[in-house]
């Protein structure tokens, strides 16, 4: 019988497309006629504060886009940002299956700005699957910093070895492993199902 009690899920790249990654940012610059190098330079300065919840989406955009006059509104730009979030249906179906069994505590463990994270939770019905949302913007810390893994485990009140973490990025998984959490590298849903079974997760 598996000792796994908690399944931590990354969101972007596992359950949904990434919320605001380099591809989306470049597409936004092309769509709105923004100089990419200038935008990206500004983004790099404030990205971590944005993800850790220290900047609202409006403050982030004031620093990266609306520091000069534009021929589009902040609302239009935010709508574009939100449009970049797309469901990964097979992953969501597997997660719903796990949630319906009720055998495990399911929690997200992801890096995302507060407003986009709230939007993604609401739009894609993540509350129906997850009991806890451990986002960088709620915790004030981000992966792969070791503290976020320690805090995540402490919140669940289980031992690290009773937790598995599913993510598509190897560095995040390596740091989770160092914290004693069982790492699961997400590549596709079939592989995820087999990896979970290997850990003894009933699915």
> Fraction of residues in helices?
40-55%
Strand order of the main beta sheet, please?
Answer: 3-2-1-4-5
What letter string, H or E per element, gives the SSE order?
A: EHHHHHEHEHHEHEH
Average of per-residue pLDDT values = 98
- Rounded to the nearest angstrom, the radius of gyration is 18 Å
**Count, helices:** 10
* Assigned CATH superfamily of the largest domain: HAD superfamily/HAD-like
> For the terminal residues, how far apart are their CA atoms?
13 Å
CATH class membership of the largest domain: Alpha Beta
Overall number of domains: 2
Shape: elongated
CATH fold descriptor of the largest domain: Rossmann fold
Q: Strand tally, please? A: 5
**Unreliable stretches, pLDDT < 50, 5 or more residues?**
none
Largest sheet: 5 strands, parallel
Architecture of the largest domain, according to CATH?
A: 3-Layer(aba) Sandwich
| Strand portion | 5-15%
As an assembly, this protein is: single chain
Based on secondary structure, the structural category is alpha/beta
